[in-house]
Amino acid sequence: MLRRIYGIETEYGIIFSLRGQRRLSPDEVSRFLFRKVVAWGRSSNVFLENGSRLYLDVGSHPEYATAECDSLSDLVAQDKAGEAILRELVSYAQAQLSDEGIRGEIFLFKNNTDSTGNSYGCHENYCIDRIDDLSRLENVFIPFLISRQIFAGAGKIVTNARGTTYSMSQRAEHIWEAISSATTRSRPIINTRDEPHADPEKYRRLHVIVGDSNMSEFATFLKVGTASVVLAMIEDRHTVLRDYTMASPINALRDISYDLWSKEPVKLLNGRDLTALEIQEDLCERAEQFVNSHALPQDLVQSVRLWREVIEQYRSDPMGLADRVDWIAKLQIIDRERERTGAELGDPKVALIDLLYHDTDFARGLYYRRNVRGHFRKVVSAEMIERATTTPPSTTRAHMRGTFIQAAKQWRRDYTVDWVHLKLNDELQRTVLLKDPFKSTDDRFLKLLASLERHG
After folding, report:
1. Do 322 and 440 share a structural domain?
2. Is the pTM of this model over 0.90?
3. Domain boundary among 388, 417, 440
4. Is 79 a catalytic residue?
5. Selected catalytic residue, list 27, 57, 317, 442
6. Is 289 found in the same domain as 433?
7. How far apart are CA 148 and CA 153, in angstroms?
8. Cys bridge to 170: 146, 156, 203, 220, which one at CB 3.0-4.6 A?
9. pLDDT tens track for 349-366
């Protein structure tokens, strides 16, 4: 599969506090946050006009799932649109709290762990060919995911039996299996629950759970783009790939997370020892050969070029990636604070930096304060992000969903939608089934749309 559908689901952390003291529980804050959503959608689980899904997940975590995208720029814009949509809800909820005389401030974090050790995810979804033999995923894709932390990690100060140290990935400590159908009880790197949201005879939805939430647009672009190319190589039976199966994938995931400069090799099942950087270099080289002989979309070709650029920079001077890679950008801020104040890594002021990097507020968030000064490499414009808050991608099934929702709301018609259905809740109960995520329109959809206006 050369053209691919993908999406990102992001769970957000939420706190309401006054001068550092928590005043409301996450559940109470979330009720204020979703009050506006429930008012028009009659639920805290809704699909939006941009084709995305917004809902309240287990543990009172606001969760935003992007619409289906087939271009990386659309995906990055949709992901950042999720932050913008939630910022607007925070602003509304803040006003509601103020009106009710409840003093304090809402903090919304795009990160993966809280202060009590709970973890919440950033899940990637990839539409792949219907394959039942998952061995190539185990041999190639899982080692790719484990080693890609060098450019996809969000960074985290961790205190455990090793002491207090800095790690590349926030999720590495919270993953317990390589492949499983579970999501929370024993978090796997890849979730195999077979829920394609498409024609099950043609497609499978690969659900990747191991990833961190990225603030950097570049990191989001690169992690999804490179993953898509690696999947294309796995699906192509003519492409020869090495077996990178690790002797202990979960130990390797954690060890690599702490090995910031990729000095220590991990043991493979075949007896070889490779560092994370060496695995990434080898896969990148094969990806370069693959894109030269296959007609991939240009954004995927670009992701392979950027992959090589990042690998070379990481090998020569990793800190030179502070404009692209979240864990390195955050480490740079922490290092400068420690040099300025002499603080230890476990100092509360340093822990605050670790957290505030992920604050989605433009004025408070350390990522956004650096971003406005041009310290991060951009992938999409502010205009593209703004448009993505209300407009679905035009080249996938999301176009039909978003357009239907917009029209139904305009004509005040009662409707129900999910990833594969559009339904008018009238006497005829007309329903359109959208089994092909690559299709942006069809006759059945156009007839349903026309009937909205006729009966408006």
Report:
1. no
2. yes
3. 388
4. no
5. 57
6. no
7. 8
8. 156
9. 999 999 999 999 999 999
Residue 120: inside a domain: yes
The answer to the question of residue 1 being in a domain is no
CATH of the domain at 115: 3.30.590.20
Quote the CA–CA distance of 14 and 21 in Å, as a whole number.
14
Which token pair is 204?
């499978």
pLDDT 10s digits, 210-259: 999 999 999 999 999 999 999 999 999 899 999 999 999 999 999 999 99
pLDDT exceeds cutoff 70 at 456:
no
d(CA 203, CA 322): 38
Which residue, of 388, 415, 446, is where some domain finishes? 388
For every residue of the chain, which 3-state class applies, written as one string? CCCCCEEEEEECEEEEEECCEEEECHHHHHHHHCHHHHHHHCCCEEECCCCCEEEEECCCEEEEECCCECCHHHHHHHHHHHHHHHHHHHHHHHHHHHHCCCCCEEEEECCCECCCCCECCEEEEEEEECCCCCHHHHHHHHHHHHHCHHHHCCCEEEEECCEEEEECCCCHHHCCEEEECCCCCCCEEEECCCCCCCCCCCEEEEEECCCCCCCCHHHHHHHHHHHHHHHHHHHCCCCCCCCCCECCHHHHHHHHHHCCCCCCCEEECCCCEECHHHHHHHHHHHHHHHHHHCCCCHHHHHHHHHHHHHHHHHHHCHHHHCCCCHHHHHHHHHHHHHHHHCCCCCCHHHHHHHHHCCECCCCCCHHHHHHCCCCCCCCCCHHHHHHHCCCCCCCCCHHHHHHHHHHHHHCCCCEEECCCEEEECCCCCCEEECCCCCCCCCHHHHHHHHHHHHCC
Together in a domain, 330 and 384 = yes
**Domain count of the chain?**
2
Same domain membership, residue 293 and residue 411: no
Same domain, 226 and 338: yes
Q: Do 205 and 260 fall into the same domain?
A: yes
Instruction: Tokens 């604070």: give the residue.
Output: 337
Q: Which domain holds residue 448?
A: 398-454
